[in-house]
Amino acid sequence: MDINFENASFKDFEDIPGMDFYGWADQFDQYVNNWDSRGHWNYRQESLNGCQPEVELAGHPGKSFVALVFNDYLGLTQHPKVKAAAIAAIEQYGAGAAASPAIGGHFSYHQQIEEKIARFFRRESAVLFTTGYTANSATIQSLLKAPDVAIVDMGIHASMYEGCGHTNIKMFPHNDMYYLERILKETQGQYRTRMVIVDGVYSQPADIVKLDEVVKLSKHYGAYTAMDDAHGVGVIGETGRGVIELYDLFPDVDIITGTFSKTFGHLGGYVIADPKVVNYLKFQARQHIFSVSATPASACILKSIDLIDEEPGLRDKLRDNIHYLKNGLDEMGFDTGNTQSAIIPVMTGKPDLNAEACRLLIEAGVYANQIGYPAVARKNARIRMSLMATHTREQMDRVLNAWEWVGGKLNLTKRVTN
Ligand code: PMP
C-alpha cells in the first residue's frame, strides 16, 4: 500500500487495507514527519497562555502571535465576570460533578442553565450535554431510527453526521433549496419520520442557512427540522440569538442545538425542543444518561448568557473587526468566499499552498488554521480565521500586513489566480 504523503490527508490513514491499527499509526507517523520536515505540520500548537487575542506558542520563545483560531467570538473565556463565576461555583460545589444527570449529577446550576438557555431562545425546555458534539450526535441518534430518514445539507457538522449512523441519510448540495425540495418530494410516504438537518452558520463556508425556505419547505412536505447554530449564537441577530432571530422563527424549528464552547466561552452542549421531547432525551440519549454532567465551573455559563444581553457593545466590536478584516482582504484581492459570520476564510485551493501559507503566517506573527480535506474538498483548501470582539485594530492591521506579504510570496490574490 503506497500513500503519496505529500497529497495525503488524515482521512487516507483510516482503515488502510492489509494492516491493523499499528500499521495505520506507523504510516500516519511517516506522513506527519514528511509534512513536519517542510514546516507544514501546523496542528496542535501549544499555547502557553490559553485562549487570548494574542498568544505565545511553545517553540517560539519571545514571540507572540495574533491568534485567529478560537471560536471565543465575544472574548468571554477571559471576561472577569465569567472567570469569577466559575471560581465561585468551584468553591460552592467542588471540582467535579461525579455522576451522570439521571443518577445524582444534576445540580442547581445545571437546572438553571437548562431553564435559562430555553428562555434565551423563547422556548420552554432544554437539556444539557457535556459537549456540543454529543448534543448533536445524541439527539439525532435518539430520534431517528431505521425506518426514518435524515435529509441533510452537505455542509452540516461532523457531529450531526455521526448522529445519522442508525438511520437513512439523503444529502442536498449546500444551501440548495431546489434539491432539498426534490428530496422532500421524492421521499414522501417512504419513511416514518423525515427530519431536515441544517446548521445555522456553516463552519467551513462560514455562510448562513436559508432558514425561511428550509422551514417553509419542511412544513409544506410534512418533515421536521433540526438546526445546529453553534457559530451563529452571540454573533448573528439583533440581540445575538443567532440565525433563529435573524429570520424571526423562534417557535418554528423543532430542534435547536448549540454549544457553550464558542460564544459562551466555556464548554457544553444544549438541545432545545418540545418539553416532552426534551424529557425523552433526558432518559433515552445514551450520551446523557451514561456520561457525567458538566463540572461546577460550567455555572459560569449563566453569567455568559447574561453578558450577551448586558454587553451588546462586544457584538458591535466583533462586527467592526469582521468588517475591517474582510474589507482589507477583499481590497487586496484575496478570495474570502461567501462568509456571513465571524469566520473568515482565505481560499488557497491546494493543500501544499495552504500549508505553506499557514507556515508563512506563523513566520509573520499570525496564528491561523489550515483547513483541508476531509473538512472541505481538496480544491477548497483554505486558511480559516475566527475573529473575536477583543482583537484590537492594531492586531487586525498586523494580520492584514501579514497577508499582504504572504499573498505576494505565494501569488494568492484573485487578480493573479483567476
Ligand atoms: N457544531 C458545529 C457547527 C461545530 O463547529 C462544533 C465544534 N467545532 C460543534 C458542533 C461541536 O461543539 P463542541 O466543541 O461543543 O463539541
Automatic annotation (TrEMBL):
Classification via Gene3D superfamilies: Aspartate Aminotransferase, domain 1 (3.90.1150.10), Type I PLP-dependent aspartate aminotransferase-like (Major domain) (3.40.640.10)
Domain of life: Bacteria
SUPFAM superfamilies listed in its UniProt record: PLP-dependent transferases
KW Amino-acid biosynthesis (keyword) present: no
GO molecular function: pyridoxal phosphate binding; transaminase activity
InterPro entries cross-referenced by the UniProt entry: Aminotransferase_I/II_large, AON_synthase_class-II, PyrdxlP-dep_Trfase, PyrdxlP-dep_Trfase_major, PyrdxlP-dep_Trfase_small
Database matches in Pfam families: Aminotran_1_2 (PF00155)
Mitochondrion is among the record's keywords: no
UniProt cross-references to PANTHER family, sorted A to Z: CLASS II AMINOTRANSFERASE/8-AMINO-7-OXONONANOATE SYNTHASE (PTHR13693), LD36009P (PTHR13693:SF3)
The protein's name in its UniProt record: Aminotransferase class I/II-fold pyridoxal phosphate-dependent enzyme
Organism of this sequence: Mucilaginibacter mali
